[in-house]
Amino acid sequence: MSERIRSHKDLKVWQDAMRLVELTYKLARRLPADERFGMVSQMTRAAVSVPANIAEGHGSNYRRVFLNHLSVSRGSLMELETYLLLTVKLGYMQEDQLREIGAVMDSVGRMLNGLIRALKQPRSEHKS
């Protein structure tokens, strides 16, 4: 990686996670009004948690803390996936309406897994 990471905003995973939040809000607006305080609230909270935890963890000076926040982000991603699958099962969405968000979720998940693996590698200059 030739570019220097100065803040969480330089991380591709954070950038894509922010796109995921945008897509989630767009989809959530299509859900019935009676889901506003149910599934809509849960979906958007889970989506926002993904980039928020990446940012919070990156802001820490400790690798362990960053790894913990990345794990929370990954959990929130799985939570969001569950809500999206439920929108199909409940007849609120069709599977084809979830293709774009599904692709972004897959990408974010792969990047989170890769970052977690990389941070678990021992580095003598960054022990925490």
| Count of beta strands | 0
Specify the CATH class: Mainly Alpha
**What is the terminal-to-terminal distance?**
22 Å
Helix content: 55-70%
Average pLDDT number: 91
Q: Approximately how much beta-strand content do the residues carry? A: under 5%
Major β-sheet, in short?
none
Helix/strand-derived class? mainly alpha
The CATH superfamily bears the name 23S rRNA-intervening sequence
Looking at how many chains there are and whether they match, the oligomeric state comes to: single chain
Features of the shown structure:
de novo design (two linked rop proteins); single chain; mainly alpha
Summarize the structure.
With 128 residues, this protein is an all-alpha fold. The chain is built from four helices and no strands. It has a single domain, classed as 23S rRNA-intervening sequence (de novo design (two linked rop proteins)).
Question: What do these coordinates show?
Answer:
The protein has 128 residues and is mainly alpha-helical. It has helices at residues 12-28, 39-58, 63-89, 99-120. The chain has one domain: de novo design (two linked rop proteins), CATH 1.20.1440. The chain contains 4 helices and no strands. The chain is elongated.
